[in-house]
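Attaching the record inline, Q. Sequence:
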Amino acid sequence: MKKILPRLATMAVLALCQPSLQAQAPITKIAFGSCSRQDLPQPLWNDVVHDRPDVWVWLGDNIYGDTDDMGLLKAKYDIQKKHPGYDSLRRLSKIFGIWDDHDYGKNDAGKEYAYRSQSRNLMYDFLDVPANSPFRAQQGGYQAYTLGPDSQQVKIILLDGRYFRDSLAKNSNRQNVANTTGDVLGEAQWQWLENELRGSKAKVHLIGCGIQFLSEEHVYEKWGNFPAAKQRFLNLLTRTKPAGVVLLSGDRHIAEFSRTNVEGLLHPLYDVTSSGLTHVWTTPRFEPNRFREGPMIYALNYGLIEIDWNARPLRLTLLIKGNDHATLLRQVVDLTPPAQ
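Structure, as predicted:
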């Protein structure tokens, strides 16, 4: 990203490695965010802690590493991990996450990045992924976690859009254009994702990735740069029909809701983009997005999803929150149960 300035496995196996993830209390609040420079002020952690989320999800650019030096990358992760505000959140909430490019190690990089394996291990260390986790035995950083009691399960699926991603296509002005044959996930991750969706009994599915899923018009990184992969993803949702699916993304140094309808899903599909925690675009400017619902947000922000398990139908409230407890965007999604 350019021209930005600071502005104030299977779950059975996983349960053996991380039994705390099978807590019986239902998950009611999931907070998330992206784009946190470890060397800038981080004013939003007090607001996040005030919301008392059960879960925090990192959506990439969790630090700004931008280096081939793994010692330097680790040192930057250590700075972020020791931040007092973030440390307070770690004591309160379960922490999960996936990377984007700056914490991966190189701006806009994909599978060509030479240090992707070493960088993946540092990300897992930062996230406290256990040494015996099955996720550490596979290539890439993708993960899935099922939380809550059987009748109120939330599944968090984190997609790795870096480790296996093909090269970006560029025009003569070095702007991104469609790579019509390129892939984002790689075949192993595609098969894993299908298995995670097909075998899931969760009532809510949150699928996160560093880059935006739905928006297409802007020239920056997005799933739309790989149209065949984007369509494959949407087709997979049509085939597997996950209940209560919401997409989560970061990267853009703005916040927005994008919405579309997908055959087979019983409610609109939202892509909730939250970025950034420490810096946003220098000045507001219009950017087209035919999927956008509501305004673009240029203030520092994080996302929050509230689940009302007592509502009939089950209700999700999608929020973009800002400093001083501000609510910047809000959308209610009622989840229609599948026909019996």
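The first strand starts at residue 4 and ends at 6. Residues 1-23 have pLDDT under 50 and may be disordered.

More tomorrow.
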